[in-house]
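Troubleshooting: if your tokenizer reports a length mismatch, compare your output against this known-good record of 131 residues.
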Amino acid sequence: MSARSWTVTIPAPAVWLNANSRADRRREARTRRAWRDAAHIYARQAKLPKLGRASIIAELRFTDKRRRDAHNYYPTVKACIDGMVDYGLLDDDSDEFLVSVDIRRGVPLSAVKLGGWPYGQLTLTVREAKP
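Known-good structure output:
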């Protein structure tokens, strides 16, 4: 029997959070909150079930082809995972409940195809993990 999985696509509500950023923490907090709230909303719309344990694959899709290190965008993914925990997907995002997080870069998107969302989108694939 294969593990159940769900996919949630989040149009970027703000600029991407980057581990290399030197932004002011208060300004960055607003961006983090935008990502967290967006993940909560899209998880609710997708009617994700409450899971005991899960693994997540995050696919980053930007609107340009610039060179990037996908793992530097972990702060964005973390904010979204926090939003999904707020929603109730998992009890917590500790190792006990979140088995793994895999961050990948996807094919670039056109901002026009995204309906004017200028920053791209994040697709989270949540896979139920065995207890």
